[in-house]
Specification:
This protein is an alpha+beta fold. Helices cover 32% and strands 18% of the residues. It has a 6-stranded antiparallel beta sheet with strand order 1-2-3-4-6-5. The chain has a 5-stranded mixed beta sheet with strand order 9-13-12-11-10, sandwiched between helices. A two-stranded antiparallel ribbon has the order 7-8. It is elongated and about 95 Å long.
C-alpha cells in the first residue's frame, strides 16, 4: 500500500479503472482514506483542515477527487466553499492540485449555464487575494485545467479552478516537492479564506484591510472589461464660457480621496497585468511588472511598466474614478509620453470603482492619445505679456 504522497498519487493514477467492480475496491478505498494514512500528511491536516476523498457515490466518478477542507468556515464537502482538491483527468494522465470552489452549490442556485459564468468570474476575482510571494514558491501553475471531458461536473470543476499545479503521470516530481507544493497551496487556501467574506455559494466578496479607517476598499468582484463606443469620451471642444458659481471645497480631503482610489486602481491594474502574463505562461515577466509611480515617483507620464506576451515593454497610465465613465484628467506630460511610446502606450480607464458598486468596469485605450481623445483645456500656464 502507498506509504508517501507521491506513491499514493501514482497508485491512483495507474490503477483507477471505471470498468472494475466498485464495491470493496482497494483503489476506491485509497481515494477515500489513503491520504490520512501516510506520514507525509499528518502535519497538514488539523482540527481546522481535514482531508476527504471520493471515487464516486455508489459508482465510479468520471473525475475522482481528494480534497483538503476548512471545516471551520465551510462544511466538509466539495459542494460548497473554497478548498484544495486533487482532480484526476478522465484519461488518468494528469492530476491537478487545484484551489477550487463548490461548483454544485452554484449549479443548484443558478442553473448550469449561468453557474459556469459565475464561478469563472469569482475565480478571477479571488486570484487578486493570493499574495505574490506565495505564487513565486510554486512552479507550473495553471489558471485553466483540462480534465478531458465536457460533461457537467468535469466542466464545472474546470471552470471553478482558481489556481492549480499540474502533474503528469509520466513525470511526477519528487515526493518532497509534492509535499512542498501541498503546503504552499494550503497557505494560499488559508490566505484566500481569511481575506474573503463568504455567503456559502451565492457570492464571495473580498475584504481588504486598510490602515485608514475613513477610507476602506471592498473589492467585491473582478473588474468587468467593456469595449468603448467611439469616440469613448467627450464631444468636441466647445467655446469656453464663464461660469459664475462658487462652493467651499476641502481640497486636502479631496486630494486624499483621489490619491486613495488612484493608488487602489493602479494596484488593481498591476495585478491584472500579472495575471494576464501568468495565464499566457510568462511567470518570468509577471514578476517584473513594476508600479513606477510607487518605485520611482510621479512625472514619467505613466504609472506601470508591464509587458506583452512576447516580452516587449508596455507603458500604462491608470485613470480611476469611483463614478460612471465620463471625462478624466490627463496631463501634457502623459500626452507627450503617449506620443513618444506610440503603440506601446496604454491608458486603462477604470470606473465604477468603489465600495457600493459590485461591478467595477474598465476599458483600454492604446497609442498616441492626441489621436485617441477629445481634449479640452481647463487650466492654463500663464505669465505676464
Amino acid at each position: 500500500m502507498p506509504h508517501s504522497l507521491k506513491s499514493l498519487i501514482e497508485f491512483i493514477m495507474n490503477n483507477y479503472d471505471t470498468s472494475a467492480t466498485f464495491k470493496n475496491n482497494v483503489v476506491a478505498d485509497q481515494i477515500r482514506h489513503g491520504i490520512n494514512n501516510i506520514p507525509d500528511t499528518q502535519n497538514i491536516s488539523s482540527s481546522r483542515f481535514k482531508f476527504k476523498g471520493s471515487p464516486g457515490q455508489g459508482a465510479w466518478a468520471e473525475v475522482p477527487w481528494i480534497g483538503l477542507f476548512d471545516t471551520v468556515t465551510f462544511k466538509r464537502s466539495a459542494k460548497q466553499g473554497i478548498y484544495l482538491v486533487y482532480l484526476l483527468s478522465t484519461d488518468q494522465k494528469r492530476i491537478y492540485l487545484s484551489l477550487n470552489q463548490g461548483w454544485t452549490s452554484f449549479k443548484d442556485i443558478y442553473g448550469k449555464k449561468e453557474a459556469y459564468k459565475k464561478v469563472e468570474l469569482i475565480a478571477k476575482s479571488l486570484r487578486h487575494v493570493i499574495p505574490e510571494d506565495l505564487l513565486t514558491n510554486i512552479s507550473n501553475t495553471n489558471y485553466k485545467i483540462n480534465l478531458g471531458s465536457n460533461k457537467e461536473n468535469p466542466k464545472g470543476y474546470s471552470a471553478s479552478n482558481i489556481i492549480s499545479i499540474e502533474y503528469d503521470r509520466d513525470n511526477l516530481p519528487s515526493n518532497s516537492q509534492m509535499i512542498k507544493d501541498l503546503l504552499v497551496m494550503k497557505q494560499i487556501l488559508t490566505e484566500v479564506i481569511d481575506n474573503v467574506k463568504v455567503s456559502y455559494g451565492k457570492h464571495v466578496i473580498h475584504s481588504k484591510k486598510s490602515g485608514d479607517n475613513s477610507l476602506t476598499f471592498n473589492n467585491e468582484h473582478a473588474t468587468h472589461y467593456i469595449e468603448p463606443e467611439l469616440p469613448p469620451h467627450n464631444d468636441k471642444q466647445k467655446d469656453i464660457t464663464y461660469n459664475e458659481s462658487y462652493q467651499k471645497q476641502d481640497y486636502e480631503q479631496i486630494q486624499k480621496i483621489k490619491k486613495f482610489w488612484g493608488d487602489n486602481g493602479e494596484a488593481w491594474v498591476k495585478r491584472n497585468e500579472q495575471l494576464k502574463l501568468r495565464e499566457c505562461g510568462r511567470n518570468d515577466l509577471a514578476e517584473k511588472v513594476e508600479p513606477v509611480s510607487v518605485t520611482k515617483g510621479d512625472g514619467l507620464g505613466f504609472d506601470i511598466v508591464s509587458f506583452d506576451e512576447n516580452g516587449n515593454k508596455i507603458f500604462i497610465e491608470v485613470k480611476t474614478t469611483t463614478g460612471k465613465d465620463k471625462d478624466f484628467q490627463i496631463s501634457a506630460n502623459e500626452l507627450k509620453a503617449s506620443e513618444y511610446y506610440g503603440d506601446n502606450y496604454y491608458i486603462y480607464r477604470v470606473f465604477n470603482f468603489n465600495n457600493d458598486n459590485k461591478d467595477p468596469q474598465y476599458y483600454i485605450l492604446n497609442g498616441n492619445m492626441f489621436n485617441k481623445l477629445n481634449l479640452k483645456a481647463t487650466y492654463y500656464r500663464a505669465n505676464p505679456k
